Amino acid sequence: MTTAKTARYLTTAALTVVLALGPALPAFSADSLTVFDWSGYEDPAFHPKYTEKAGAEPDFSFFGDEEEAFQKLRSGFKADVAHPCSQSVVKWREAGLLEPLDTAKLASWNDVLPNFKAMKNLMTSDDGTAWFIPFEWGNTVLTYRTDTVKPEEVASLKAFADPKFKDRVSIGDNVDDAYALASLAIGLKDWTMMTDAQFQEASAFLREVHKNVRLYWTDNTDLSQAMASGEVDLAWAWNETATTLQAESQPVAIKKDTKEGLSTWVCGYVRLKGGEASPDLAYDYLNAVTDPAVAAYMVESWGYGHSNAKGMAAVDPKILKDKGYADVDAFVANTLFQSPMPTELRQKMIAEFEKIKSGY
């Protein structure tokens, strides 16, 4: 046969086979969900019911921080759902990036922990429109190597600026966590009330911290590797870091009882405008991640709390106690909650943090 005839023959033969087997093959849909997320959250254990129902994993694309995600979405990047945190929801909504949520399609909407339901401009806007469903919550907290740092040396968050820790410190390449640290260090626990003078004071503190920074981490893997190798002794980190390292028998601890306290945050999922997948797939995913059965894995393996009150109530009490979630009120005591802040203030923080990281 000539090449053309061979190709035509093979195509015809293949089509014949497909048609013959058609009734035995599963229906195929080109519809695929794209999730825009933090690295690590592609973990299949977070959404088993989605995979079971859809027959496949969703597609994932990742961002390093929410400002990067925001700018990418503003420039036209397409995804169906995304995973911002509390302090970004208002900004994303005001920029027209979000689709409202139909709460009738969200199986766990009414089971979200009451503290999150009560937060202004988090799950809903003032007119009652729903935009955001919480998924996980936790702390950004002082984390240190117990073989090189004594607890008394880190009794205060001001240790991050202590010259004795030069080149031994890591904080996140994340404006929200950075200014949460700085706000606490200057004695401010409600950053929505930050004055211009306090902004300058907080920024000055971060400039002192910058002198000690070995690494601005972008995800838990970066930081965990740096702490495990001894490159970093002192970090401003999420619960996940200590949980991961302790599971590997690394000499790492968190210190929640510093003089100034710690930061608490909540992150969750939104639907994005312009998403190309079926809305049903988006709701299937949101229902999967907020399913109460996910809570135990979230707490035990990641060290975070889950948003579903029924799910948290079903977690082994010993695990809740070990991870610090037995008493929610105590968990958030002496904390700066990373609540939604005025967009203008956050833009100031973003611009200033870029200068700080560049040494200015």
UniProtKB/TrEMBL annotation:
Gene3D superfamilies in UniProt: Periplasmic binding protein-like II
Record's keyword terms, sorted: Periplasm, Signal
CDD domains from the UniProt entry: PBP2_polyamine_1
Highest taxon above the source species: Bacteria
Annotated signal peptide: 1-29
Pfam families: SBP_bac_8
UniProt protein name: ABC transporter substrate-binding protein
Species of provenance: Shinella curvata
Organism placement in taxonomy: Bacteria, Pseudomonadati, Pseudomonadota, Alphaproteobacteria, Hyphomicrobiales
